[in-house]
Write a structure and sequence with these properties.
Helix content: 55-70%
Strand order of the largest sheet: 1-2
Radius of gyration: 17 Å
Bound molecules: cytidine-5'-triphosphate, magnesium ion
Shape: elongated
Distance between the termini: 32 Å
Mean pLDDT: 96
Number of domains: 1
Length: 181
Amino acid sequence: MAVLETIVVAFWAMLPAYVPNNAAVVAGGGRPIDGGRSWGEKRLLGDGKTWRGTAGGIIAGLALAGVLTMLEGDVSAAIGIDVPPFTPLAALGLAAGAMLGDILASFLKRRTGRQRGAMFPGLDQLDFVVVSLPLTALLATDWFVSVFSWDVILVVVVLTPILHVTTNMIAYKLGLKNEPW
Ligand code: CTP
Ligand code: MG
C-alpha cells in the first residue's frame, strides 16, 4: 500500500474510535460511573467518567460508523482510495473499546495518585487504541484482519497521539475541556 493510502485508511478506520472521546466531553455530566466510590483513599475512576459521557461517546462512534459505511462507496470513488465499510461488530469494538480504554486509563491514573484532569503522557494519547484494536480484533476478527494490516497499525500508533494532542488543544481553546490534554 502506498503511504498516503495507508494514512487515509488508518484515519478512516479509526474515526469511530476517535470520535467517542470528543463526544464524551460534550455529552458528559451527571452521575459518575463509580458512583462516587473510592478504593482506599482514592476515587475508583473519578467524576470525569460519567454514564452519560460514556453512552454518548459510544452512540456517537456507532452513528459515525453507520454514516461512513453509507458514504464508503462514494468516498472511495471520489478519492481513488478504497476505504472500508464498517460491520456493526467492528463499529462496536472501536467505539466501546475507545471508551473502555479511557475508563481503564482513569482507573490507572487514580491508582497512581493523579487527580481528575491530571495528565499521564503516553497513556492519555494511546489508551483508546490499546483497548479498541484488541476488542475489535476479538469481536470482528475477519474485518479487523482485512483492514488493519501491520502498516495501518503502525500509522495508527504514530498518527493517533498527534491527532489527540491537536483535537484536545482545540477543545481546550473552545472552552469544552478544562485541560489541553
Ligand atoms: N467524560 C465523561 N465520561 C467519559 C469520558 C469523558 O463524562 N467516559 C467527560 C467528563 O466531563 C470529563 C471530560 O469528558 O471531565 C474530559 O474527559 P477526560 O479528559 O477523559 O476526563 P478528565 O476529566 O480529564 O478525567 P481523568 O483524569 O479521569 O481522565
Ligand atoms: Mg483528561
